Amino acid sequence: xxxxxxxxxxxxxxxxxxxxxxxxxxxxxxxxxxxxxxxxxxxxxxxxxxxxxxxxxxxxxxxxxxxxxxxxxxxxxxxxxxxxxxxxxxxxxxxxxxxxxxxxxxxxxxxxxxxxxxxxxxxxxxxxxxxxxxxxxxxxxxxxxxxxxxxxxxxxxxxxxxxxxxxxxxxxxxxxxxxxxxxxxxxxxxxxxxxxxxxxxxxxxxxxxxxxxxxxxxxxxxxxxxxxxxxxxxxxxxxxxxxxxxxxxxxxxxxxxxxxxxxxxxxxxxxxxxxxxxxxxxxxxxxxxxxxxxxxxxxxxxxxxxxxxxxxxxxxxxxxxxxxxxxxxxxxxxxxxxxxxxxxxxxxxxxxxxxxxxxxxxxxxxxxxxxxxxxxxxxxxxxxxxxxxxxxxxxxxxx
Length: 399
Description:
The chain is α/β, with parallel strands linked by helices. It has helices at residues 2-20, 23-41, 53-66, 85-95, 102-108, 125-136, 161-182, 216-230, 261-272, 297-308, 327-338, 351-354, 366-370, 380-390, and strands at residues 46-50, 78-80, 114-118, 146-149, 185-189, 238-244, 246-248, 275-278, 291-292, 294-296, 315-319, 325-326, 344-347.
């Protein structure tokens, strides 16, 4: 018996090691987490069901959402279809057990809810039927006028180029072609990572074929911009690529390691009273004096709304403030917003980052201004103050 127990533990360890090394699966799980967060934020509820052990899993999951999981949060709504024995037995008696969840799903599900059906085999008939009900309730894509495509694998250390091509390039092409067919506007995220080390400056009017990104993520964005330039044979009525610089602001918690330094810096300060910044490996820059063009996400939203209201504007544009500021300045903005004394700790840059690190980014914004965009961008101090005081300091992961 002892040998069986040890083997079961070893099997579990082996499975978890496989899971943690499966980047595609990790990305799917991360995406599902984002769906859960978006559902709750938008006032929807989580509806779950399962049989046997899966029924217990559904109950456990719901209890964490309504109760407490890892941190104190407001109670979020969750409904477990297998918890109501009276309704289940009534439906089973009148309509058959295969319909015990589907009929409840029709009664309780709304279009902004998230449905989770749990099945070990993957083909439990009553769960499958409930999933079909949920699918039928999805909003139909009719009369689409705009698609704003900002999703991507944005990890600058991702090495699986096949995955990046599928996720960042091929899927974006699919949306481009859909918008072309439906005569809809397509606004998508390119990236300042396409500029590489910045030796050719950060000018959106230069020939993009000359750019050399420093990492695979940057290339996955670059090749789509090039595809549009050289190979696209159909075009949406409006097509806009946005080369985002260092975007920060509310609702980025799901990005984990790729969330902004503003998000991570706040958490560091709350944990031990100091912020950790990379030391410089470039003699031209002192520690913490590496420069970035930090742009607040609310300004990004204002720009996108302006583009929606100006359908005659198409092209590839930088999105930054046009002003590079140091990480030291960012840290000062933090501590000022929190009314705390400045406390910076400089740490060594990881080997993985060293050779691909951008020491300076600053968007040239002339192109966007020339097409008529005149709205002022927030200063770093204004953006950090709003983000820290009105969002991060409220202690909820989902705002």
